[in-house]
Amino acid sequence: MRHFPLLASTATAALICATPALAEISAEDVWANKIALVAAMGGQMTATTTRDDNHLMIGETTTSFTLPFDAGSLRLVTSGVTLTENADGTVAVEYPPTIEGALAIDGPDDLLASVKFSVGAEGYSTLAMGVPGDIGYSYVLDKATFRVSDLVVPETPDMSLVMSSVISGASGSYHVTEGDLMQIRTEGTTGDMLFEMETTDDLGLVSTSTLTISGGTNAATMTIPTGKVSILNLSQALRDGLALTFNAQGARVETSEKTSLDETLTMVQKYGYVTDTIDYKLDHSGLVASGRNSDIWMEFEVPGYLPLPIKATADAITGSLTLPLNKTDGLADASLGMSVEALSVDESLWSMIDPDAQLPRDPANLTLDISGQIALLMDLLDINALMALTPDGDTPAQMHKLTLTTFDLDMVGTALSATGAFAFDNTDWGTFPGFPAPDGTVDIHVSGADTLMDTLVALGLLSKEDVTGARMMLGLFAIPGADEDTLTSTIEIKPDGQILANGQRLQ
Questions:
Q1: CA separation (Å) from 469 to 214, 462, 466?
Q2: Average per-residue pLDDT in the chain?
Q3: What span, in angstroms and rounded, lies between the C-alpha atoms of 265 and 317?
Q4: pLDDT tens, 428-476?
Q5: Highest mean pLDDT pick, 22-26, 94-98, 217-221, 381-385
Q6: Contact 177, 37 (CB under 8 A)
């Protein structure tokens, strides 16, 4: 068996261990820690073990999980590992040069799907330290290769899958603390990754894709209520203590995908971006997520259907979401935000639809910020309860307040902005059938609409009749603004069913 170099620096030890100064752990402690982690998530890990002096050899290992709805089980079988006790009380985790494995999904009666894989590593070392039941691990990886093949799906025998990856320059640490609430902490550098995959479905459609990730860091914490996590009711698991935080930043991502049928190319898409930051927090209070990607580009081509590839770039795209997930006592806050900065399409597309550059080609921008208060009448992650809902039954949630803080869109020389706020009467679903009666106002401002419509007529993209109808419709809802080629509108919706535009009743 190959023995990899050990990490011995005190700096590394300090990084991964939040426990007192290095205490002695045994190889059996490390093996029990790994079993406990799988058990906390509702799985089982089994293997034969053999003790030889300071080495504990773990044989072929089977990890299994029971699937919901009595659908069968998932089994992962991998090569063994050797745990070597060091004189300083640490344990080296030593893997063979190549790890062979197989993943199978068993149905109630027969095999549903299976696949084989292999992992090879160069310059890989893992060191465990801490105290029994509270163990930290550090790792360094020069290079690893991963390959998946031999897909078997009895119901669709013509399906195939080949996937491979190369990972280099990764390092990091993770810490597992056992208990009724298992605690997991991890952080590391992503290194460079290359993923390649080719799939063929039972109709003969072939899809090939490539994904590269360069650089970046990540950190996560997770709390698992041991033995109390059911994929069918994560809402209860959240009440029992299930929680997750995750942060990633700094990685450059590029991907491409091609599909073909009977050796004829049907679609090509490519895109890339830099992950400035991604943050997730999930616990009993709900989900809070945010992220920002920058330096974004994409290409999309459908030969035979689109006359030329569609290409676009954007400086950045950001998003945020706050959402309760469990049944609420009273009202809970929710919000959604997003922005697109400097979205531009390729000059070749502009030249096709507007060869004389009559339309302004300034990059488009979008900003959206919505918040509100909702009442959840049931748990959103209780799958069985959701499946029991009927079309005429109770709704899982009620909207009580909605505030449009910002909506700004500008493109092709036209700008649209809106703000507003509404309250909803959830005891009145008759005034507006199928919807709780709203009470509120939205203010809208538009600039450049007339100029845009005239230009679209000049380009032949709209007829004069289309524009006349559009202007008549705008006249029902909007009035001229203070500046040239601007429109404003104040839309009011009242609890008694009235809808007014600039004080004029529409309904």
A1: 52, 11, 5
A2: 90
A3: 30
A4: 988 988 889 999 999 999 999 999 999 999 988 889 998 999 888 888 8
A5: 217-221
A6: no
Residues 6+ apart with CB under 8 A from 268: 256, 257, 258, 299, 300, 301, 302, 303, 309
CA atoms within 13 A on the CB side of 310: 9
**Are the beta carbons of 197 and 163 closer than 8 angstroms?**
yes
Q: Which residues, in sequence order, are bridge partners of residue 180?
A: none
| First CA to last CA distance, the chain | 81
What is the token pair recorded at 178?
């056992």
Q: Percent of the chain having pLDDT more than 90? A: 71
Q: How far apart are CA 285 and CA 197, in angstroms?
A: 38
Kindly tell me if the per-residue pLDDT of 392 is higher than 80: no
* Locus of tokens 């679903």: 429
Contact 310, 300 (CB under 8 A): yes
Residue 23 pLDDT: 67
436-442 LR contacts (CB < 8 Å, sep 24+): 436/398, 436/399, 437/495, 437/497, 438/493, 438/495, 439/493, 439/494, 439/495, 440/402, 440/492, 440/493, 441/490, 441/491, 441/492, 441/493, 442/404, 442/418, 442/490, 442/491
Residue with tokens 């100064």: 21
User: Rounded to an integer, what distance in angstroms lies between the CA atom of residue 242 and that of residue 183?
Assistant: 10
Q: Which of 308, 361, 370, 301 is nearest to 333 (CA)?
A: 370
Report, as an integer, the average pLDDT of 27-43.
Answer: 95
Q: Which has more pLDDT, 415 or 157? A: 415
Asked if residue 185 lies in contact with residue 220, where contact means CB atoms within 8 angstroms, the answer is yes
